[in-house]
Specification:
alpha/beta; two-stranded antiparallel sheet; 332 residues; eight-stranded parallel barrel; binds ligand PBG; single chain
């Protein structure tokens, strides 16, 4: 007499897990390379390539970034999200290099669009790679990051990025009101087709550590970013952020970091229905990479599992340092 399980004796969920073919048939979530956006740190030719804490990832010169774009296209990856390394001597309190139309980001976008016109480019909007205090906005004498003055600068930065060919500008600074201001400004300047991906729900996170090394901010950053980035304890506030950015004209919304915040990915996606992007940030990559390097886990499996979970949670795309790798693994 077989054991009876509750009211439905014939229900055995393991039946559909018995073979790989059954498991394939019943998989609810599929990955495709278009889901992956490669996070890419740019450098000038004479800047160092190696990023402390991120083995397997190197800063890319413009030529290398062009080659990466060619291979991203051949792998059908969703796109490239670019961030610049800026050495201390090129930084100042105003973050002036951010508005220079011949800065590294703009030259890279122009070169990549020339090499591979249809590769999608996302440009980060925030002053932190360019300021000598490492903050995303302007700082007054008392050390406060001043909102409205910063927003005026961010729209200038968004404009140079839009003009250099970025398809999407992605404000990651968490100033209030910047989405509406950037949208109005871009429209007034004729950049009506440049989309805005708002880092709407962005937390003050320890997981950004390796990124700050990567862009050259960790040595210079004074204090933390808790007066503008969100408290990791807050979910409802994240929905308010997303609601405001949606009203202000964001085309897409982002949740960041990724894995510890999958509840927010689901809630943002279900509440607003906008294309929702998650960012598997530098610290998330570094955790998997260093655990794998220590022999504690299999990097490839951990990577694909984490990306599947982003998809299952409702993300439409994920920015990750391992996009190229993930695309290769999919094609096995
Ligand atoms: C800042 C910015 C950060 C990241 C992208 N843009 C970090 C920060 O707030 O200091 C993080 C990316 C990552 O950790 O991979 N504007």
């Amino acid at each position: 007499m077989p054991h009876q399980f509750g009211t439905f004796p014939t229900t055995r969920l393991r039946r559909l897990r018995r073979t790989a073919a059954l498991r394939n048939l019943n998989r609810e979530t599929a990955l495709h390379p278009g889901f992956f956006i490669q996070a890419t740190i740019l450098r000038e030719n004479d800047d160092p390539a190696v990023i402390d804490g991120m083995s397997g990832i190197e800063r890319q010169t413009i030529d290398q970034a062009c080659a990466l774009a060619v291979s991203a296209k051949s792998k059908r990856i969703g796109g490239l999200a670019l961030f610049p390394y800026t050495k201390p001597s090129d930084r100042n309190s105003a973050g002036s290099a951010a508005f220079d139309p011949s800065n590294l980001m703009c030259r890279a976008a122009e070169a990549i669009k020339k090499a591979v016109p249809d590769v999608l480019l996302i440009g980060d909007v925030a002053l932190d790679p360019y300021t000598d205090h490492g903050h995303d906005g302007l700082m007054d004498d008392s050390g406060t990051i001043i909102n409205d003055e910063t927003v005026e600068k961010l729209r200038e930065q968004a404009l140079v990025l839009a003009r250099s060919g970025f398809d999407i500008v992605a404000p990651s600074d968490m100033m209030d009101g910047r989405i509406g201001e950037i949208r109005r400004f871009l429209d007034a300047q004729g950049c009506t087709e440049t989309a805005i991906l708002s880092y709407a729900v962005k937390y003050a996170s320890a997981f950004y550590g390796p990124y700050r090394n990567a862009v050259g901010s960790s040595g210079v950053l004074k204090g933390d970013k808790a007066t503008y980035q969100m408290d990791p304890a807050n979910a409802l506030e994240g929905l308010r952020e997303a609601a405001l950015d949606t009203q202000e004209g964001a085309d897409m919304l982002m949740v960041k970091p990724g894995l510890p915040y999958l509840d927010m990915v689901t809630r943002v996606k279900e509440s607003f229905g906008l294309p929702t992007v998650a960012f598997q940030v530098s610290g998330e990559y570094a955790m998997m990479r260093s655990a794998a390097d220590a022999g504690a886990l299999d990097f490839d499996r951990a990577l694909m599992e984490s990306l599947t979970c982003f998809r299952r949670a409702g993300a439409d795309a994920v920015i990750t340092y391992a996009a190229m790798k993930a695309a290769d693994l999919l094609s096995y």
